[in-house]
């Protein structure tokens, strides 16, 4: 199964731009007295250092005249790349657009002439500023704030809270639990339609305590790819390429009662990088000499990365570029002719009988799906073992004593995790660079319960 990737390419048409009917200058702000109009694909706002531009565009892959308000890299003109779209699913059919701040202090986008305007999009902030100001920042964030407020980083609304298909340095993906806000990427519907596509990428929470949140790519309601829980330096189950990317990019994961999110910052300010969702997640950087975007890693990276390739209670291994499915010890294939259908127990577990049930140790595997788990941040190994044996639905447990900071694939700060029911989405870490973990003092162990 192949995963083509496309880059959204937009035609740049150079022309003079106008801030209003009487002002001709590049600025980074909009004030209530100003009206900005469609200016034929040229930025109407430019961030202070000229890094990003805000303006109207038509996707080049279409013959329509649909117009969208978006943010793009202002200095990349050969392959103009849109990173955010306001009216994703509400295109304006002509160039009659106007952008201004209304009497409630919100940024509003209209179509039509002044005597026949139709509201297309709004920031819709419930907080009203004394002196509203909209500003395009040099990190690509479009913000609404109160110019009377001495705290210039206190935003009433920001585009970073509503990402499209691109994650920029400094952007947050994840949950604001107080506001019930989930920031996640969603693909374009097609190369000529920025409305929400089928693919999403973001953090999903385990209930009820959110101890082991995971990064998922979904295709509609189905999981396409799963990264394991945060393990201190990256998410579990990621390849060395991605782990190195996180390590070298000022990556940060925040997990508390109010917020669960991750972000990254460009350590090298001269390097233009982004995380882009199309048919895959691509880690991309701009190569100035060649004037192209280079994708230096994509996920899913191989067929074992595809969620559930081998079904339940099975592990996936890449051999000669092909996925090979093998049952976990204590399980047998459901269908000998189709190992991708998963495995079932070859005999029943004797519930709560320590004399008949034992655990099989498995190491160097991507930990199973954590949706149906129970976790403890403080539990001894023998207690974790007994906890699993005492629950007839427990299939396996994982134990991690590495609170000294060494690496495992359990959620950081978590010592004991129990899995219930079938074990999904495990893979052999070939290409995942786990060998170095064998030298660590503390190792993650996953114990799968099997009958004697």
Automatic annotation (TrEMBL):
Residues 1-25 form the signal peptide. CDD domains: B_lectin, PAN_AP_plant. It comes from the Eukaryota. The keyword Glycoprotein applies. Residues 27-157 form the Bulb-type lectin domain. GO terms for biological process: recognition of pollen. InterPro entries: Bulb-type_lectin_dom, Bulb-type_lectin_dom_sf, Pan_app, S_locus_glycoprot_dom, SLSG/EP1. Residues 351-442 form the Apple domain. Gene3D superfamilies: Bulb-type lectin domain. Keywords: Disulfide bond, Glycoprotein, Signal. PROSITE patterns: BULB_LECTIN, PAN. Involved in sporophytic self-incompatibility system (the inability of flowering plants to achieve self-fertilization). This is S-locus glycoprotein.
């Amino acid at each position: 199964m192949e995963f083509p990737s496309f880059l959204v390419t937009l035609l740049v048409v150079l022309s003079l731009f106008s801030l209003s009917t009487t002002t001709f200058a590049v600025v980074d702000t909009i004030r209530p007295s100003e009206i900005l109009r469609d200016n034929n694909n040229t930025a109407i706002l430019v961030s202070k250092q000229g890094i990003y531009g805000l303006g109207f565009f038509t996707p080049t892959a279409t013959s329509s005249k649909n117009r969208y308000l978006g943010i793009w890299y202002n200095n990349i003109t050969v392959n103009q790349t849109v990173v955010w779209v306001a009216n994703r699913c509400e295109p304006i059919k002509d160039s009659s657009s106007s952008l201004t701040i209304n009497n409630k202090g919100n940024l509003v986008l209209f179509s039509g002439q002044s005597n026949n305007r139709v509201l297309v999009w709004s920031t819709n902030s419930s907080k009203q500023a004394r002196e509203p100001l909209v500003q395009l920042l040099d990190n690509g964030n479009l913000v609404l704030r109160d110019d009377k407020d001495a705290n210039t980083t206190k935003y009433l609304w920001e585009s970073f809270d509503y990402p499209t298909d691109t994650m920029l340095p400094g952007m947050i993906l994840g949950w604001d639990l107080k506001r019930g806000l989930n920031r996640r990427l969603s693909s374009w519907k097609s190369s000529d339609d920025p409305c929400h596509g089928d693919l999403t990428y973001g953090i999903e929470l385990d209930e009820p305590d959110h101890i082991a949140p995971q990064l998922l790519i979904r295709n509609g309601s189905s999981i396409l790819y799963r990264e394991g829980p945060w393990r201190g330096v990256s998410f579990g189950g990621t390849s060395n390429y991605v782990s190195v990317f996180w390590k070298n990019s000022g990556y940060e994961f925040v997990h508390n009662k109010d917020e669960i999110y991750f972000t990254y910052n460009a350590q090298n300010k001269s390097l233009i990088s982004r995380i882009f969702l199309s048919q895959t997640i691509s880690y991309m950087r701009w190569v100035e000499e060649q004037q192209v975007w280079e994708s230096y890693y994509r996920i899913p990276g191989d067929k074992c990365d595809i969620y559930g390739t081998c079904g339940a209670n099975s592990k996936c291994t890449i051999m000669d570029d092909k996925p090979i499915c093998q049952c976990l010890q204590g399980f047998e294939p459901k269908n000998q002719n189709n190992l991708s259908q998963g495995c079932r127990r070859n005999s029943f577990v004797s519930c709560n009988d320590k004399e008949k049930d034992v655990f099989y140790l498995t190491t160097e595997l991507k930990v199973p799906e954590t949706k149906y788990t129970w976790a403890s941040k403080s539990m001894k190994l023998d207690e974790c073992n007994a906890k699993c044996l005492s629950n007839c639905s427990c299939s396996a447990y994982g134990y991690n004593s590495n609170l000294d900071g060494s690496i495992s694939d359990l959620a950081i700060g978590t010592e004991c995790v129990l899995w219930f029911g079938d074990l999904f989405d495990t893979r052999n870490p070939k290409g995942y660079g786990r060998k170095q973990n064998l030298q660590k003092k503390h190792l993650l162990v996953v114990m799968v319960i099997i009958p004697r």
